[in-house]
Write a structure and sequence with these properties.
Elements: E1 2-6, H1 12-22, E2 27-32, E3 35-39, E4 53-61, E5 72-75, H2 84-92, E6 100-108, E7 111-118, H3 142-152, E8 162-166, H4 172-179, E9 183-187, H5 194-197, E10 202-205, E11 223-226, H6 232-242, E12 250-256, H7 266-275, E13 280-284, E14 292-298
Parallel strand pairs: 5-6, 8-9, 8-11, 9-10, 11-12
Antiparallel strand pairs: 1-3, 1-4, 2-3, 4-7, 6-7, 12-14, 13-14
The structure holds S-adenosylmethionine.
């Protein structure tokens, strides 16, 4: 069997480690930056987490054999130009959850690979799972991370809800949450962007999240969001501690996975989430991610 993955360059090593751990019978095959294929002697349920998308690799084809009625076309580099007929085909094609996606991957000039995967509700409606979030002026890349998580998981963010944002500076994610008309309590020892500080629905708690106590906030917290750049073990420990005195309806945690030893702990983190009473939870590598993962949990 032959499988493909599309990932971001920063996550390639983590993806390879994940494959070694979770799919020991797979071996790395043809690869280009961002496009990695793997071979196995027998079929596996291939769904690694450190990639934007993965599936069965049908193979490499000359352009004249790409006669599909419906297909998406993804190009590996901005500098590549998709032939106009393939571009038209891709632009007129849509896939719904549950449908089999045919993805033509333009890996180099005149180098076309075809892959197939089943569209999940958490997939983006874009070829190669590139971000569908429009470019926006914001204090940081975290704007895209939370916007992509909200779209992929269809997060039921509602106006007036209170978000406790751990690691909020300089305020990209806060900007997105304020745009949703939510109230944000940002906990971070670092400075917030001046535009965010001025916003009537934002309050800055300039301290490490370890200092939050049951008396810190006067109102109930609806969501806990974290983008703290500390090891995921530290973040999870604090998130568990916060649940001693708050009961949010949802969590959106960015877990920074800089060390492969944290890969092995991901399933322990899921056990923590279940023990906190969350019924639905998932991990997703978002288009704007580097060496990190989004953990979403909902009651
Ligand atoms: C990736 S940045 C966060 C980006 C931010 N979410 C945004 O939207 O712009 C990580 C942040 O974690 C903060 N941080 C590190 N240790 C912390 C701690 N113990 N408590 C709270 N924040 C912490 C850092 O000060 C830094 O601002």
């Amino acid at each position: 069997m032959f499988y493909f993955t599309l990932t971001n360059p920063e996550a390639e090593d983590l993806l390879k480690e994940e494959i070694m751990l979770s799919y020991p019978n797979l071996r790395l095959s043809y690869s280009r930056p961002g496009f990695l294929t793997f071979k196995a002697d027998k079929e596996v349920n291939f769904s690694p987490v450190f990639c934007r998308v993965s599936g069965v690799c049908v193979g490499k084809f000359p352009k004249e054999e790409l006669n599909y009625a419906r297909a998406w076309v993804w190009k590996r580099e901005e500098s590549l130009s998709i032939p106009s007929d393939l571009k038209e085909l891709s632009e007129k094609t849509n896939f719904r959850p549950g449908e089999k996606v045919t993805l033509i991957m333009m890996v180099g000039p005149d180098e076309y690979w075809v892959g197939e995967y089943t569209m999940k509700p958490t997939h983006f409606q874009t070829p190669g799972e590139v971000s569908s979030i429009l470019e926006t002026e914001s204090p940081s890349r975290a704007y895209y991370k939370i916007a992509e998580a909200a779209e992929a998981f269809d997060l039921p963010f509602d106006h007036g809800e209170i978000v406790l944002e751990l690691g909020s500076a300089p305020g990209g994610a806060t900007q997105f949450l304020l745009e949703q008309d939510m109230k944000v309590y940002g906990v971070d020892p670092a400075d917030m962007d001046a535009k965010i500080v001025k916003h009537v629905n934002f309050r800055h708690y300039r301290m490490p999240f370890e200092h939050i106590t049951k008396d810190t906030f006067k109102q109930d917290i609806d969501w806990v969001i974290s983008d703290v750049n500390l090891p995921p073990t530290v973040v999870m420990k604090e998130v568990v501690r916060l649940h001693e005195f708050m009961e949010p309806m949802g969590l959106v945690l960015t877990l920074k996975i800089n060390d492969s030893k944290h890969l092995r702990l991901l399933w322990n983190f899921m056990d923590d989430i279940v023990a906190l009473g969350y019924e639905r939870y998932a991990l997703k590598y978002l288009p704007s991610h580097r060496q990190e993962l989004c953990l979403v949990a909902l009651r």
